[in-house]
Fold this protein.
Amino acid sequence: MGGTAWHARVECGTEVGAGFLVSGRHVLTCAHVVRRREQAQVVVSFPGCRGLTGIPATVAVHGGWRGGPTDPGDLAVLELDREVPLAPAEFAVPGEEQEHGELIAYGFPKGYDEGMLASYRALPGPLISDEWAQLEALTGHGQPLAPGFSGAAAALADGRVVGMVSTVAGGRDVRVGRMLPTEVLVRYWPELCELIPASGHRPEAVRRLYALVRRAVAEGLGCAPDRLYVDAVGPFGPPLPDGGFASLGAAAGYVMWEVPGTDAVTRFAQRLQDLLDAPPAPRAAAPAWSPILVEIDHSGAGTDQVTVEVSAYRDGHRRRVDSRRLPRAAVREFVQRRVDDAFGQLAPDAEELVTFVLPREWLNEPVAHWECGPEDSTPLGCAHPLVVVDRSRYRSGRLRHQLAKKWQKLEARSAARLHRVDCGGRERPAGLRKRLHDEDADLAGFSYPPGAARPHFEAGLNTPVPVLLWPRTGCTDPGHEGPCSGTAFLDELTADVTGVPPAELPRQVMELRMTAEADDDPDRHWAKDVQLLWDDPRCFPQPAAGLHSPVH
């Protein structure tokens, strides 16, 4: 095998596919090869090195493939349980496949455990659905791209990789397939940009750029990738892609690959260098939570269809567990299974924080009451600290910036005061927003659920108040005069959160939920339906890879 011992065989239950080593512990393959990873262990072997067989692996990054043959994102990054002493694959400059008539793939069709080679070429022209390059056999004989080649590197004759085989249509008379070119692979794993030569850029400039990105991630630098991009390309450069950048690495890759010339890369790196070398502002340590993130959003495929993504943070890096488009009725079961899987991604001593990022109309969903699993009826909010975050705030650069500043102020205080929003007030939503602003509110407690007076509730959401609490049920007409169940809720809440540091509120609210659950009459306990929106942007650093990275 010589210098190509990086070819890998990937097994997951009865599924057999290929892969290729890209670092000492990471292997690229297709997501569909490891689709049964919940029922069977993923193991990786390297045929070119007989001592490296049956190595356990986990899925560290999933491209978002949902199960269909034409679904995008059919990529998985496998993390081996130990580093292997092999040189990883080398990549060619993107587009070189058009200049060479032959690509070689090393796969594992049925009956050939040691592997077989297949010779194909990439058809010139645009990508199919902006995702795949079409492959066609060079001859009418030889090995077709049969099952077992999925995940194989598509390599030039000198071994440099130009893509990954994804779709195979092998057979006696069918000799076509598809591959994900490298410029598509980086959409789903931006870290790959660092390994792929960029035409026109000096190698030392590329190394400097990604060394700075790694340092920024390691140091938890608080910077906005979108702002860095705009500064780098200038007012006349390519506009910010729709949706912005999911990570600093994605922004760096886009500047390197998609922006003409080399000046933008130099400016991006220098601006990042300046931020890293700037004297740190005096501040206390950031909270030590390790979030498990459950993101729910409208899928665009109908009112009943939503996209759900579960991920976990470890050492400041976000690791995607799974992402699906589901009917609303199937969300709870999916979350139960995937949250349980996400715990496997946390460090052993991590302080978990289950965080639901929800559309605004879902904020009152009883997620804290969802059971931990089919065999464990414990409510999630009683088993773990659990909070919700408004998805609109989560996506707003303006509010993220204001909230981060607010938390820096909060760290200088041992406790925060609860600002009450009671029933019976004549205050208009604009007046409430001004009061929360003028009083520099840290915690706002509502006596009623969001649907009872949505304009007032949204005034709280659209103001950078880091913490909001409310009863999920109770008063439905907050315009009344006199005390009600909401008043009692706020009285009890004020007594219980006074003196508690804001960073500790998720744990304090979990204790309240446990107390209510254990009460002789839990349905009448004031804290039975307490909902906590707790929003510290520093707990959710930029993810290592986004499902819809704009690099393309």
Remarks:
- Residues 281-286, 543-552 have pLDDT under 50 and may be disordered.
- The longest helix spans residues 203-218.
- Residues 475 and 484 are 7 Å apart (CA to CA).
- The first strand starts at residue 7 and ends at 12.
